[in-house]
């Protein structure tokens, strides 16, 4: 069997422009109504003579099509998982009537979308920025109610990530009344998680990229946010749970007082804080005081007990989620 290397089909380089934060109510409504994972084609072009292989998922049972480049004819390929060459790779043994068995080593990355955990079917869109070797955006979806996702496509440079879907509301103790979108700016070799920390620091990192290397910009922006919010960094899961509980508590209180969707108010809150951090990496005094006051009134112990019951009901555990977070 011949060993082959995965190469992406090239396209037009994505311009380095600040990703839009405007999302229509219709889009959010459609996301909220989606109850099952959707699938979109994730096209990986495999050089093997005059053959290309395209697959639409990263699972062991992924559906693939083999295409002959010379005449454009296609056939379905069977895919079986073999022994991985490295922990970051998954080895597929692919065979079709044309090719016979052949090996395909694909790097598989995993991550988690956490505010509380996003529900199964949440959408994660990757948009390579200028400076990335990869030019095609692509989309994957969470595979469980713990916010987990996987993708066979390694990052090739700075990449903007948007995760949209419903989530567990720590303060309310139930699934959110609507979706939110969290952002991240990721670099190759770094964790792929999308969290409140990545959302609050992403616009700041994007701005810092004007004056420093992308990797340094991402690290500095996240450290600035962690310092401003007094995140210890010693226990990522505990930090994010506390932060998520406080934020959803503030949003829920505003919804009860003024009316409206708690998830929409949460979106407005985190977007506003992210914009605040983007300027100088600091939180304005009024926002800092509001979050500090909210922290003093939140019952974190009670919220943790309810959270663990929820995770047990969806087939997970707090330990399993904590182990995934980086």
Describe this structure in words.
The chain is an alpha+beta fold. It is 35% helix and 22% strand. The strands form five sheets. The protein has a six-stranded mixed beta sheet, with no helix packed on it. The protein is globular, with a radius of gyration of 21 Å.
What secondary-structure arrangement, pairings included, does this model have?
Elements (H helix, E strand, L loop, with lengths): L2 E2 L1 E2 L17 H9 L11 E2 L4 E5 L8 E5 L5 E8 L7 E7 L6 E6 L1 E4 L10 E6 L9 E4 L6 E4 L7 E7 L2 E2 L4 E2 L4 E7 L9 H13 L5 H15 L7 H23 L3 H19 L4 H13 L2 H14 L4 H7 L2
Helix pairs in contact: 2-3, 2-5, 4-5
**Uncertain segments:** 1-51, 83-90
Total of domains = 2
Mean pLDDT: 74
Order of helices and strands: EEHEEEEEEEEEEEEEEHHHHHHH
Short description:
The protein has 326 residues and is α+β, with helices and mostly antiparallel strands.
Pick out its properties.
326 residues; disordered N terminus; 35% helix; alpha+beta; 8 helices; 4-stranded antiparallel sheet
């Amino acid at each position: 069997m011949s060993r082959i290397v995965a190469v992406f089909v090239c396209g037009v380089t994505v311009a380095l422009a600040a990703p839009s934060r405007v999302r229509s109510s219709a889009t959010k409504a459609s996301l909220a109504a989606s109850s099952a994972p959707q699938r979109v084609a994730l096209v990986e072009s495999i050089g093997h003579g005059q053959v290309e292989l395209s697959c639409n998922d990263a699972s062991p049972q992924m559906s693939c099509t083999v295409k002959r480049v010379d005449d454009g004819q296609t056939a379905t390929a069977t895919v079986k998982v073999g022994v991985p060459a490295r922990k970051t790779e998954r080895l597929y043994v692919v065979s079709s009537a044309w090719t016979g068995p052949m090996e395909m080593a694909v790097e598989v990355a995993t991550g988690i979308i956490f505010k509380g955990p996003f529900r199964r079917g949440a959408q994660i869109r990757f948009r390579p920025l200028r400076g990335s070797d990869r030019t095609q955006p692509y989309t994957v979806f969470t595979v469980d109610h713990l916010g987990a996702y996987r993708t066979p496509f390694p990052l090739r440079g700075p990449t903007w990530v948007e995760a949209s879907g419903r989530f567990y509301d720590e303060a309310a103790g139930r699934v959110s009344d609507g979706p939110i979108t969290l952002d991240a700016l990721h670099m190759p070799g770094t964790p792929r998680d999308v969290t409140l920390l990545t959302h609050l620091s992403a616009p700041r990192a994007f701005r810092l990229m004007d004056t420093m290397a992308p990797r340094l910009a991402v690290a500095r922006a996240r450290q600035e946010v962690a310092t401003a919010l007094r995140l210890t960094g010693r226990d990522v899961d505990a930090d994010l749970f506390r932060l998520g509980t406080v934020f959803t508590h503030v949003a829920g209180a505003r919804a009860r007082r003024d009316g409206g969707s708690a998830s929409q108010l949460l979106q407005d809150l985190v977007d506003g804080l992210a914009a605040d951090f983007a300027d100088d990496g600091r939180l304005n005094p009024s926002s800092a005081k509001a979050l500090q006051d909210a922290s003093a009134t939140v019952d974190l112990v009670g919220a943790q007990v309810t959270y663990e019951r929820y995770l047990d009901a969806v087939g997970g555990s707090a330990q399993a989620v904590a182990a995934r977070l980086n």
